[in-house]
Amino acid sequence: MDLQTLSFLVVGATFVLYIGIAIWAKAGSTSEFYVAGKGVNPILNGMATAADWMSAASFISMAGLIAFLGFTGGAYLMGWTGGYVLMALLLAPYLRKFGKFTVPEFIGDRFYSKTARIVAVISLLVISITYVIGQMRGVGIAFSNILEMDLTVGLVSGMVVVFIYAVFGGMKGITYTQIAQYVIMIFAYTVPAVFISLTLTGHAFPQIGLGSTLVGEDTQLLQALDQTLMDLGFAAYTSITGMSLMNMFLLTLALMIGTAGLPHVIIRFFTVPRVRDARKSAGFALVFIGILYTTAPAVGAMAMYNFINTVQPGPVGEPQGNVVIDERPDWMVRWEQTGLLEFEDKNEDDRLQYYNDQNEEFAEMAREDYGWEGNEFTKIDRDIMVLANPQIAGLPNWVIALVAAGGIAAALSTAAGLLLAISSSISHDLMKGVITPGISERAELLSGRIAMAAAILLAGYLGLNPPGFAAEVVALAFGLAAASLFPVLMMGIFVKKMNREGAIAGMLVGLGATLLYIFLFKGWFFLPGTNMFPDTAEYWLFGINPTGFGVIGAILNFIAAFLVMKVTKAPPEHIQHLVEDVRVPRVGTS
């Protein structure tokens, strides 16, 4: 059976499963729509949380970034995993004990203010819409690969599927769908990694294979990769490249505290019956997440090793290039059709050269010794590496189809969680909480579904014009969460005298400063080229990359909140007692 037909069958079967689950678990009440009736088993909730957590950025983009950034790409790995631990320890149990449906509802009640709730809703919408852009891009990439068509067609196809199962199922349907998606996702990620690790190193566990010697050689995989890259004018894979040490630290910290402020993940801990179940869910989710995250570095390194040795073995082996254009492999032809892989035969030798033509010394040597006129791969989208990896390695078609299904599952699972967070913030926090408090449950459900449908359309449009790769877009969303919601949640739980004026000021300052900084160097997401300054280190403020600016935004948030708190009235006594009660374990629940 040919690859495209097999891919249709595998992915189609998963869609039937998702939609069937959504119909079976259709939400009939607001409690089921927002928090699945608070009756989800902790183990199952941990699995659903892991699926919600491991987005297209984790499945599709992270290993691709690690492949091209090498050691530096570990910032994404450290930030996201460390952030989840931070959230599980410092926020999840306390928010579950508070017992509200949404993060803005907690902020509104804790700071006894509708204004605080509205500002939290605005922050949530900005974060979630930015985040969902990366997911829709991931959906589009996976679909376009299967359909062998342009990214736009793939993205629209993904929007239709998300609409069907997210709009009708609500949190109840999404939860059980995400459990199925986790199983598909982790199987799809680990199976090809095991195959490739066995082929390259003889070890079944990729985590071990990453530090092992290549089959039939005395050289370790990472040493061979370092040498191959340096032979082509690139920096060693294991060196810090692509960003300064300061920006690597800021990015890691922004991802960590941004993770702890993500509303669509926090809301998952509201779906379990008791506080201690929230803690159990966090623990199980960390185990499920760890399976993929410990595999990702090996996937990135092995993908880069296979890619380079396919398209360009290096000046020592065959200096004219390895790929004859008319005989290029099928995987290249497939990805060319999506527009995510492009090349140009600059020296007209009918072969493709891949090397670092930005290294002036190496480029001059290559021109004189080999007649190369520049790197001929004019576009290699980082987001294709995981999906293309099994194709490059020559794995069976069923494995390639499985990886495509896994990539789609990863993007859909997080997109659904984000869309629900957007929907609940509009229908529950704005409509019921502020605009029309007397709205009926039926009308609230309808407004939630309409809001979700509108969010899907907006996310799809923005997904066609993203400000970066999936992981980079997601990193911006984490920075916004770090600057706006994380500080106010921390102060809401651990600073009993933090008042509404301080919380509102902090959120506005943190969110505003970070949005402004991103706008200056990224422009409007839906209008490419509207940035005021080039997105390069020489123009950044003190050399701070926009992806790491969320840390600065968080610091500004804390400073503004405490300064305003000092000159305004303390919160009422009952609010201070409420904060103390949330922090003190209740007998039989923790």
Describe this entry's structure for a reader.
With 590 residues, the protein is mainly α. Strands 1-3 form a two-stranded antiparallel ribbon. A two-stranded antiparallel sheet has the order 2-4. The longest helix has 51 residues. The N and C termini lie far apart (54 Å). The chain folds into two domains: 496 residues, Sodium/glucose cotransporter (Up-down Bundle); 34 residues, no CATH class. The chain is built from 24 helices and four strands.
Number of strands: 4
What proportion of the residues is helical, as a percent range? 55-70%
- The CATH architecture category of the largest domain equals Up-down Bundle
- Give the overall pLDDT as a whole number: 82
What is the tally of helical segments?
A: 24
Strand content: under 5%
Give the structural class: mainly alpha
Distance between the termini: 54 Å
- Note the overall shape: globular
Poorly predicted tracts of residues: none
User: Biggest sheet: strands side by side, in what order?
Assistant: 1-3
What is the H-and-E element order?
HHHHHHHHHHHHHHHEHEEHEHHHHHHH
The major sheet is characterized as: 2 strands, antiparallel
Tally of individual domains: 2
CATH superfamily of the largest domain: Sodium/glucose cotransporter
Q: What is the CATH class designation of the largest domain? A: Mainly Alpha
